């Protein structure tokens, strides 16, 4: 069996991955808060952990991997959006979830096995908070329930920072009902116009962190294999998840391996609305950037490195994929390259995997190219529609002009040479007085045309 090595944030080392139970490898990834279209940064954890999901399925068997990614559908940002637009929370979250699934499918992400919504697990959250209070790790005050951070000695172990340093660097809300400013909210009261559920602490709603702890426990158990998310979630979100889960479940760890993807930037700058470089996955798709091209650009950078989205990378990715799509037309799928698998198994070295695809293309190993690209979610049929409508007009003009010249000179050798090259590339050549038409047939190979230009 391929040995997978993963960088564990907790140990700050690359470790050989050993699942708790190889027949059921379990992974949880923090999903989006659903009030708006996913921006391209949001697609990074989706593509990174989709890659890990694919690798785990390949190694352990598709039916032996359970991947859970939640939707946070109760949050003050959603409430604010409802207030701004006059729409209901249900309409907003439903629509946003639909968009999210569409956009992530467009970049080739497989759907996780379960996509729980926080509002479906309120009872589990309340039960977990009650357990925490009973064990002395949490307390109720003024309609709130709060986690007593000082009661958990391992708090901060994930990010490897001292509690006091961490708190000093974070914006900690001081509130009269807190015993200690670092205690965080498990439950908070809702006003009449805010979404709320009855609880032992009055009508209210959960804090964000408890959502993941409750959903992960319900769907994956008290301790599971891998927990992932963006680097921005490491503190406080993941520290808080660990504190809640380990204290409520009496376990020493919530997940064995913690993985964090680095952030995405645009043209070397942090993406922000004020810089005008903020855009969504849908914006790119609407501009005609194929989802497959977006995926390729993402995979070209290792997940633990900051990633830069640039126009240049987009263009190069598109040219490469077009060329490879031309090469694999009508080719039978071969075997997945071992070198590609070895790269992926080495802490998801997707850049190395893409380098291997380039090598296979250069070596003309097209069957292996097809199989290996499919393994990482590229060059499969359902993502290929964008490359089908190839623009032949430049080549048509080339042949048309050659014929005009030949009519004058009576030398048709250039025309014959071009025609032969087009046929060789798998194009049907239709010539009439009006013009030239080139129609790709089954064996069409775009890379053969490149030699003409
Ligand atoms: P949110 O909806 O803000 O909680 O984010 C959903 C996911 O997207 C989380 O895993 C974040 O870490 C991740 N994320 C947000 N912004 C970026 C970014 N610029 N680059 C990479 N990941 C991001
Ligand atoms: Zn989470």
TrEMBL record:
Membrane listed as a keyword: no
Q: Which BP terms does GO give this entry?
A: cysteinyl-tRNA aminoacylation
Q: How is the cofactor bound?
A: Binds 1 zinc ion per subunit.
Q: Which InterPro entries match?
A: Cys-tRNA-ligase, Cys-tRNA-synt_Ia_DALR, Cys-tRNA/MSH_ligase, Rossmann-like_a/b/a_fold, tRNA-synt_1_cat_dom, tRNAsynth_Ia_anticodon-bd
The UniProt entry lists the main location of this chain as cytoplasm
Tell me where it resides: Cytoplasm
Residue stretches making up the Cysteinyl-tRNA synthetase class Ia DALR domain: 339-387
**EC number assigned by the record:** 6.1.1.16
Which positions in this protein are listed as binding ATP?
Answer: 273
Q: What keywords are annotated for this sequence in UniProt?
A: Aminoacyl-tRNA synthetase, ATP-binding, Cytoplasm, Ligase, Metal-binding, Nucleotide-binding, Protein biosynthesis, Zinc
State the span of motif ('HIGH' region). Answer: 32-42
- Report the superkingdom from the record: Bacteria
Q: Which GO terms describe its molecular function?
A: ATP binding; cysteine-tRNA ligase activity; zinc ion binding
Q: What class of enzyme is it?
A: ligase
Motif 'KMSKS' region extends across: 270-274
- The keyword Membrane is annotated on this UniProt entry: no
Q: Mind telling me which SUPFAM superfamilies this protein's record contains?
A: Anticodon-binding domain of a subclass of class I aminoacyl-tRNA synthetases, Nucleotidylyl transferase
Q: Which family does it belong to?
A: Belongs to the class-I aminoacyl-tRNA synthetase family.
Subunit details = Monomer.
User: Can you say what this protein is called?
Assistant: Cysteine--tRNA ligase
Q: Which organism is it from?
A: Lentibacter algarum
């Amino acid at each position: 069996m391929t040995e997978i090595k993963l960088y564990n944030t907790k140990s700050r080392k690359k470790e050989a991955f050993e699942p708790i139970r190889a027949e059921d490898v379990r992974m949880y990834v923090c999903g989006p808060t659903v009030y708006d279209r996913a921006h391209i940064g949001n697609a990074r954890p989706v593509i990174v952990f989709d890659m890990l999901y694919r690798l785990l399925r390949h190694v352990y068997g598709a039916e032996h991997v359970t991947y859970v990614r939640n939707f946070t559908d109760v949050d003050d940002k959603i409430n604010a959006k409802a207030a701004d637009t006059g729409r209901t929370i249900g309409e907003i979250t439903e629509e946003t979830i639909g968009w999210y699934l569409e956009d992530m499918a467009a970049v080739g992400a497989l759907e996780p096995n379960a996509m729980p919504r926080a509002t479906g697990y309120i009872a589990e959250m309340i039960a977990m908070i009650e357990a925490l209070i009973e064990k002395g790790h949490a307390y109720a005050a003024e309609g709130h329930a709060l986690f007593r951070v000082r009661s958990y000695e391992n708090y901060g172990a994930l990010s490897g920072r001292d509690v006091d340093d961490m708190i000093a660097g974070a914006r900690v809300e001081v509130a009269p009902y807190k015993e200690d400013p670092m205690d965080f909210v498990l439950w908070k009261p809702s006003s009449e116009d805010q979404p709320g559920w009855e609880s032992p602490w009055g009508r209210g709603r959960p804090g964000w962190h408890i959502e993941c702890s409750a959903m992960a426990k319900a769907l994956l158990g008290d301790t599971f294999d891998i927990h992932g998310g963006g680097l921005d979630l490491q503190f406080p979100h993941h520290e808080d998840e660990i504190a809640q889960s380990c204290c409520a479940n009496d376990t020493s760890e919530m997940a064995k391996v913690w993985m964090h993807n680095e952030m995405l930037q645009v043209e070397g700058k942090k993406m922000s609305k004020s810089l005008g470089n903020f855009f969504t996955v849908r914006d790119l798709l609407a501009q005609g950037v194929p989802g497959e091209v977006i995926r390729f650009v993402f995979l070209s950078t290792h997940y633990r490195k900051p990633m830069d989205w640039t126009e240049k990378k987009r263009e190069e990715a598109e040219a490469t994929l077009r060329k490879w799509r031309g090469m694999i037309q009508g080719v039978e799928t071969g075997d997945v390259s071992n070198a590609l698998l070895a790269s992926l198994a080495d802490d998801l070295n997707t850049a190395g995997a893409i380098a291997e695809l380039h090598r296979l293309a250069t070596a003309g190993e097209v069957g292996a190219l097809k199989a290996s690209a499919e393994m990482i979610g590229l060059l499969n049929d359902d993502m290929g529609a964008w490359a089908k409508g190839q623009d032949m007009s430049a080549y048509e003009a080339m042949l048309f002009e050659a014929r005009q010249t030949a009519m004058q000179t009576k030398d048709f050798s250039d025309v014959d040479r071009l025609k032969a090259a087009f046929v060789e590339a798998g194009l049907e050549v239709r010539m009439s007085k009006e013009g030239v038409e080139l129609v790709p047939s089954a064996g069409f190979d775009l890379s053969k045309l490149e030699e003409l230009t």
